[in-house]
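Risk mitigation, structural track. In case the binding assays with zinc ion fail to produce interpretable data, a predicted complex structure has been prepared as a fallback.
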Amino acid sequence: MLHDHNDTTMTCPCGSNKPFSFCCEPAIEGHKPAKTAEALMRSRYTAFALGAVDYIINTTAEENRNPEDAEIIAEQVQATTWVGLRILDSVAGTASDNTGIVEFSARFEAEDQNGELHERSNFRKENDRWYYVDGQIEIIN
Ligand SMILES: [Zn+2]
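Fallback model:
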């Protein structure tokens, strides 16, 4: 499912400086759901970086999933290299909350442009699992 997945000692793409296997991997592989909105956001960034399309879809709020998502996300994953994540703000979203907001900046490189995705995202918890709902997105070149 994941590319670049052979080296289990690699540092997690989310910028935590922890090994992937102790950071986002348990969530992405479905062993241990993300406990906080920020952890889910980080794991979704990592899933974009590594091409874990199913995880991205499965952690999107059901009402915002579309049948064509798999194809669109797979194309984005192919065309874009994610090169860095910074968390700018985090509101609620702890293990004892049911909603959360995370603001972040993610740098990317693509064939036609390099830039930065700046997003303030809304998250919601259902049955002890966090989901990405939606966000205000700005692309900065
Ligand atoms: Zn991580």
